[in-house]
Amino acid sequence: MRPFALLFLALVAGPALAQPARITDADVRAFAARQEQAWNAGDIDRYFAGFTPNARFTDQAYVGDKPPVPYGTSTTAQAREQARRTRGQSRERGEIRRIQIAPDGRSAIVTSRVGSVVQTSGKPRRLCASRVQTLVVSAAGMRATGQTDTFVKCSQ
Known about the structure:
CATH architecture: Roll
Mean pLDDT: 85
CATH topology: Nuclear Transport Factor 2, Chain: A
Distance between the termini: 66 Å
Strand order of the largest sheet: 2-1-6-5-4-3
Largest sheet: 6 strands, mixed
Shape: globular
Strand content: over 45%
Helix content: 25-40%
Order of helices and strands: HHHEEHEEEE
Structural class: alpha+beta
Number of domains: 1
Number of helices: 4
């Protein structure tokens, strides 16, 4: 390629490459849909690919009107292993309730209502939770730094 052409490409592409990616509402909704699809397909690797390597997964539950009681926190590796060991089939359906995008557009907090049905030995078990995830822009694309699931009584 001629030096002039390289210089031209560098001048044109430089500002575009320097612009940080911004998270949009549509990005968040597409991310959540991909995560749900991967989980429901049993594709654990694709599901966990949506998280940063240092992500944390916290489970807790509401007990009456008291503050949530934490069950524990797992690393990405621990959560992946727990998902692999889970007996039965799990299906989730989430509904995004709130998206808060940071002013710089580089992160977002997403709050969803999630309903799950876990089939074990032919018996369904229904779980409901409020899920909070923080999404960030990384070199690999949008990723979640973890999630907190607060289990609640399912409404009929």
